[in-house]
Design a protein that fits this description.
Belongs to the IMPDH/GMPR family. With 503 residues, the chain is α/β, with parallel strands linked by helices. It is built from 15 helices and 22 strands. The chain has two domains: 12-100 and 232-480, TIM Barrel, CATH 3.20.20; 110-219, CBS-domain (Roll). The strands form six sheets. An eight-stranded parallel beta barrel has the order 4-5-13-14-15-16-17-18, surrounded by seven helices. Strands 6-7-8-9 form a four-stranded mixed beta sheet. The protein has a three-stranded mixed beta sheet with strand order 10-11-12, covered by helices on one side. Helix 1 (66-75) packs parallel to helix 2 (87-99) and helix 8 (296-305) crosses helix 10.
Length: 503
């Protein structure tokens, strides 16, 4: 006979936190959000990898590329670069995060000397940047032959067909710096010579980076930045249960700090085969998260496999239709509570603490506080990050509003991937995700700042100044369907019903 769970499965919106005593020291500025992301002997040793804010970005094409990873690491979180791309391009994204030097920009506006003023104007329109590197092959790292800025041409007096080499500032007249220049030295050169941009070149005159005067202010240190021992940004990467023998070495070589096996359903032999291969070849030096699971049994299986963290969540994501398509899944809050209980028991028995990542279905900022209070150590978000400037997708106008594109990894749009090649048939037989728009929300930094202000504030209401303290002290209540109404604006006529402030 089938097994029946005694409780219905619930979502975050069905719960609330009940405040606890807060001392006068318990203010948002004193709240520490640092959290472990890989297993360790809690109470005996430091966790080898922690993040400074409990947020990671989802392993998705529409969310986590190198631009997102840099922006999130700067705020103290971590991205998991999407695995549904070739090994080479995923490794290249990881490498770009690891080689990123704040203030040193890979030039995105480049032109060849035999192109024309017309091409310069078109490029300026496309990138919005008026400083262009003239390289022999027109690539960001080609041999530097000159620079074009708005001061080098006058559109009213010059023919659009005029060649770049005829009006650019040639290399001989440029001030450049070698590639081992520090940011401080670069800024001094910019200051001393009243430059707007300083090209950084290698020993063969190839362009490596540009340093811009206007970026100077944004280089000030961010105290929560997530850096490795060599002061490089930290980054995670998604892997699958098929090509790990090729993909894992490439990602490790590129510098990935943590890997995560990306699957809708992790209670499988495929996951064990994958981690066994990694342990055989790398021992414990390579950190691997596994998942997704939604109950105790699934957790214990992955714990025994040796997971460094376990990811929870099936079908709760905003773009997920797995529950509708396949009828598998579990309410995210119930799944999390069950797995956390198993994790705590496992810790009691073994002394090994396995961090739990709650993945998908976090809609309002308070859902994040709830998930942490329920025992999640960190949170994976897709929709949330897809709305920002830094996500890889297009910003479009829909019905007069700015939107960003966002699609599921199981959607037809993301399907160009071998994991759906079941027995030689390249076609995706059915979709498990949708292709959608989300309201554009601006810069990651501003939004994460606002979200975490709310999280810190709620933690203070619960008398908690750290995530472990929140998990210990939180008092959580289920709410009745009727009392849900009480939580929103009710029995008033809204002056502007189009303003929905809940977030
Ligand atoms: N969290 C969620 O609720 C969901 C997430 N997704 C996302 O969609 C993407 C695709 O997920 P899945 O379809 O679960 O991918 P998957 O690669 O885990 O599994 C796809 C199919 O391939 C089979 N398979 C896996 N490894 C194999 C191997 N080595 N040899 C032969 N067969 C193998 C599996 O049994 C399964 O039938 C992921 O990014 C996932 O995160 C999709 C649906 C739901
Ligand atoms: O059923 C699904 N079909 C899909 O196509 C799909 N793509 C991603 N995911 C999962 O959703 C998570 C992101 O969820 P949110 O947008 O709610 O943050 C992600 O982190 C994934 O766990 C999918 N689930
Ligand atoms: K859903």
């Amino acid at each position: 006979m089938a097994y029946y769970f005694s409780e219905p499965s619930h979502t975050f919106s069905e719960y609330l936190l009940v405040p606890g005593y807060s001392s006068s020291k318990c203010i948002p500025a004193n709240v520490d959000l640092k959290t472990p992301i890989v297993k360790y002997r809690k109470g005996v040793e430091e966790c080898p990898i922690s993040i400074n804010i409990p947020m990671v970005s989802a392993i998705m094409q529409a969310v986590s590329n190198d631009t997102m990873a840099i922006a999130l690491a700067r705020e103290g979180g971590m991205s998991f670069i999407y695995g549904s791309q070739s090994i080479e391009s995923e490794a290249a994204m990881v490498a770009r995060v690891k080689s990123y030097k704040a203030g040193f920009v890979v030039s995105d506006s480049n032109i060849k000397p035999d192109q024309t003023l017309g091409d310069v104007l078109a490029l300026k329109e496309a990138t919005g940047h008026s400083t262009m590197a003239v390289t022999a092959d027109g690539t960001p790292n080609g041999k530097l032959l000159g620079i074009v800025t708005g001061r080098d041409y006058r559109v009213s007096r010059m023919e659009p067909s005029l060649r770049v080499e005829e009006f650019m500032t040639p290399f001989e007249k440029l001030i450049t710096a070698p590639k081992d220049t520090s940011l401080k030295e670069a800024n001094n050169i910019i200051w001393d010579h009243k430059l707007n941009a300083l090209p950084i070149i290698d020993e063969n005159q190839n362009l490596v980076y540009m340093v811009f005067r206007k970026d100077y202010d944004s280089h000030k240190e961010n105290t929560l930045e997530l850096l490795d021992a060599h002061k490089r940004y930290m980054v995670g990467a998604g892997i699958n249960t098929r090509d790990y023998a090729q993909r894992v070495p490439a990602l490790i070589e590129a510098g990935a700090d943590v890997l995560c096996i990306d699957s809708s359903e992790g209670f499988s032999e495929w996951q064990k085969l994958t981690i066994d291969w990694i342990r055989e070849n790398y021992g414990d030096t390579v950190k691997v998260g596994m998942g997704n699971v939604v109950d105790k049994e699934g957790f214990l299986y992955l714990a025994k496999c040796g997971a460094d963290f376990v990811k929870v969540g099936i079908g709760g994501g905003s773009i997920c239709i797995t529950r509708e398509q396949k009828g598998i899944g579990r309410g995210q809050a119930t799944a999390l509570i069950d797995v956390v209980q198993a994790r705590d028991e496992y810790f009691e028995q073994t002394g090994i603490y396995i961090p739990i990542c709650s993945d998908g279905g976090l809609v309002y900022d308070y859902h994040m506080t709830l998930a942490l209070a329920m025992g999640a150590d960190f949170l994976m978000l897709g929709r949330y990050f897809s709305r920002f400037d830094e996500s890889p997708t297009n910003r479009v106008v829909v019905g007069g509003s700015y939107m960003k594109e966002y699609w599921g990894e199981g959607s037809a749009r993301a399907r160009n991937w071998q994991r759906y090649d079941m027995g030689g048939d390249k076609k995706l037989s059915f979709e498990e995700g949708v292709d959608s728009y989300v309201p554009y929300a601006g810069a990651l930094k501003d939004n994460v700042g606002m979200t975490l202000a709310k999280v810190r504030s709620t933690m203070c209401n619960c008398g908690a100044m750290s995530i472990p303290e929140l998990q210990q002290k939180a008092k959580i209540t289920l709410v009745s369907a009727t009392s849900l109404v009480e939580g929103g604006a009710h029995d008033v006529v809204l002056r502007d019903p189009s303003r929905n402030t809940a977030q």
